[in-house]
Amino acid sequence: xxxxFNVLIVAVVLSLIGFTACQKEELYEETQGDSMIELATxxxxxxxxxxNAENGDYEKVIVNPLIKGESCKFIxxxxxxxxxxxxxxxxxxxxxxxxxxxxxxxxxDQTIVFxxxxxxxxxxxxxxxxxxxxxxxxxxxxYEKVIVNPLVKIDDCDYIVEGTVEFYDKYGLVCTIDFGDGECDEWxxxxxxxxxxxxxSQEEYMYNK
Length: 209
What we know:
Blueprint: H1 2-40, E1 46-48, E2 59-68, E3 75-84, E4 87-96, E5 102-107, E6 110-115, E7 117-119, H2 124-130, E8 131-133, E9 140-142, E10 144-154, E11 160-169, E12 172-181, E13 187-192, E14 197-201, H3 202-208
Parallel strand pairs: 1-10
Antiparallel strand pairs: 2-3, 3-4, 4-5, 5-6, 7-10, 8-9, 10-11, 11-12, 12-13, 13-14
């Protein structure tokens, strides 16, 4: 009888451990998911006036191949042109091969230098946005957002229509978020470091933010 009682105690303890682990995993999934969505949609890089386009659309042309540096998080060289009615309206240049976290965007006659990675500042408001649970340690960590392809909005659409960003924590790549190929729809795809794909709605997040 004593042995049976001991076995029951062990079973209960293991069940509690499993329940706690599941709770932590669910908390991680919920917190990280919210953080990724908020962080991904917090800013965009270009707004294109497609309302002036003959077909209501724009063309993205990779003039020079986009090359990611070896042992570097960033695209280190390459050029993208955005065209409306055949005219170049914006250009993004990733540089000459140096892993320097820098690119330039030219719109009209104005050229702006911008950083490819974005980190949170230390204000309480930003911490809420940029912090989540680490996939590996179940601890709060700071995410780094790295722009792979510029996030694009068009002037007659509420959503980010194109662009790719990667998110890193101190352990490495967490996920990639892909906003699509320029079509005005609400959908984006989150691809985890394990290759799992999750479709989520920008509209749903906008209304529940």
